[in-house]
Q: What sequence folds into this?
């Protein structure tokens, strides 16, 4: 039986009762409009915990004034049906008025990680993410919380705040789930026109091409980034950023040398098609075709 | 048997084990150099919880660059003896390197409460308090945490952040414990010379005098504040602030009318004697002598 909680008090009582029974609680925070990517997070939480909680909350504080808060897609009935089929114990729908009541004034912020990639064009975004995730962690006190690797900078922010603030929660990440043509699943893909949707496959193709270039010996991040940008622009994408970054600090790498690859280097990008901003990222390795099915990366 | 934990991992395991056994955990965060005021907090925690944890940590992030971090008094052996006598289950000595490890970057801040009283002359103070208390709450996950009313603004900041971030912790406050002459107990009283110590009694005397003036019908905060300032300066105190404030928002009150008294109004002050900055506060009421023994308030 899947329960639904609409107040933090209900959700907290349920989660604390499970914890008191010695059960492991797994939390999957989402903004709803669920797709296979979210359900993969739920399945991973089920493997790691005895009880799985999914929160659905379109968090207003992580949207800038010109962003898509008002239009963010919602489908509560569809989400509940998917979660029931996938096997979830508690769905938590926080209310905006409860998470941000009149007079609330406490925020959680990070000093460095947000000053990279998406944080540069979305200045309030990661403060909003950090604050709402802190609230969700304090409400549910999960032993484990699961986040997707598509939102890679978000994953790092949450991992860092969980450690810095000493929540007793393990942050687990799940690989990006992709459409058959490689496009990373995202609730925002619903915004794309049919034409934009066809063009958007260039994002993953470009990441795979970049990985192959690195495997073939490319070491110069600037040159690689410029070529990636060209490939995307040739399909009508408007590049917000394309960057080759350290996988922990998100600092841009000048050289993609073997040491950088060993520490971990990511190619990351944010690109608009029409009004829709999409992000994706891929770990660079010396193996060209890991995660990139043969032929797909270079297909136009 | 009183246990001592010197790492957050030990403290968290102990507290979570107690919680899992269905025991209520009470936390008393301190900076050590314990006096009767702290021990009153411990006794209150014992009344409200099954297990009492006292943390002792001189938190560097709540001191400004010109403040007394380096000189803050410490007495670990004396503190342990007092806590053992008073009856404490766990003493937690976090290390600076563990609470603020290399690469830490997460802070908790409040938008409004710090912009009053002590926050104006100590700009980093309440951010440091909010951040360290969040860490201590996440480590110990206490059902109750106890703070003194002497640090009234700190109490409000902690109460607000606990609610805003949804920690499952009740914040309980304990009345200020005073020396026989009325001076509020504080670890910083140890800094005072004998002469400064004698003069410092003017703080509580002035608060009691202000309460009596209000009970006699004084309604004008500015006039009352100016007279309080005069009394303190006549004993050699250097006033940082004297203010009549709303007990929840800390906004300064222009008029101390019956509605304000009913909502709750505090007289609050921060005063230096030599290099030592002392704070105190008192709830204003229509009863002149509540908490102010007859004759003391007007004695010089």
A:
């Amino acid at each position: 039986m899947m329960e639904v909680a609409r107040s933090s008090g209900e959700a907290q009582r349920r989660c604390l009762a499970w914890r008191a029974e010695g059960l492991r609680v797994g939390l999957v925070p989402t903004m709803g409009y669920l797709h296979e990517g979210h359900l993969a997070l739920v399945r991973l939480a089920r493997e790691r915990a005895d009880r799985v909680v999914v929160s659905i909350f379109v968090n207003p504080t992580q949207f800038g004034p010109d962003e898509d808060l008002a239009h963010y897609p919602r489908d509560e009935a569809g989400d509940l049906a998917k979660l029931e089929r996938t096997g979830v114990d508690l769905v938590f729908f926080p209310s905006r008025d409860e998470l941000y009541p009149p007079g609330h004034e406490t925020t959680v912020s990070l000093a460095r990680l947000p000053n990279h990639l998406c944080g540069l064009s979305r200045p309030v975004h990661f403060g909003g993410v950090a604050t709402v995730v802190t609230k969700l962690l304090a409400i549910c006190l999960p032993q484990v919380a699961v986040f997707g690797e598509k939102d890679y900078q978000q994953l790092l922010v949450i991992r860092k705040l969980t450690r810095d603030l000493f929540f007793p929660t393990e942050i687990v990440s799940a690989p990006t789930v992709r459409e058959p043509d490689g496009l990373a699943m995202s609730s925002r893909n619903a915004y794309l026109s049919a034409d934009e949707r066809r063009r958007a496959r260039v994002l993953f193709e470009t990441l795979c091409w970049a990985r192959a270039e690195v495997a073939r010996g490319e070491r110069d991040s600037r040159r690689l980034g410029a070529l990636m940008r060209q490939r995307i622009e040739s399909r009508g994408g408007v590049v917000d950023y394309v960057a080759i970054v350290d996988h922990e600090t998100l600092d841009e790498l000048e050289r993609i040398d073997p040491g950088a690859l060993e520490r971990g280097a990511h190619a990351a990008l944010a690109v608009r098609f029409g009004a829709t901003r999409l992000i994706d990222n891929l770990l660079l390795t010396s193996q060209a075709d890991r995660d990139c099915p043969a032929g797909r990366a270079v297909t136009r």
In short: The beta strands of chain B are 3-5, 25-30, 51-56, 90-92, 106-110, 144-148, 170-174, 238-246, 265-273, 276-284. Chain B touches chain A at residues 8, 12, 16, 19-20, 22, 104-113, 130, 134-135, 138-139, 141, 160-161, 164-168 (CB under 8 Å). The first strand of chain B starts at residue 3 and ends at 5.
